[in-house]
Amino acid sequence: FSSFTPYLIITMEIAIILYICCSVTFLLFAIDKLKALAGRRRIPEAVLLTACLLGGALGGLLAMLFCWHKVRKPVFLITVPLLFILQWVGAYFLLCYFYGSSRLLWL
What's this model's pTM, rounded to 2 decimal places? Predict the structure, then answer.
């Protein structure tokens, strides 16, 4: 197990970064929804999509489900779930690279 310690640290750092990205994205979507309800100036859609692209797709997807925000926009209905899938596939291949594919067959 001690031979995998550097990789475990790297994957924990990546997990923390993704958690922060997802949290920030969720908050951006929720704030935009509150601004929409109040009739105030909104967060640009490009900012929301960029936040999803930079690792926050899970947060964007959860915000779409829980806040019921941007669910009628086709670009969000297609792009956010697609980015979510691509990010999870990318994370799987990163884990395969760090730990070896034989250790991740159960995923």
Answer: 0.81
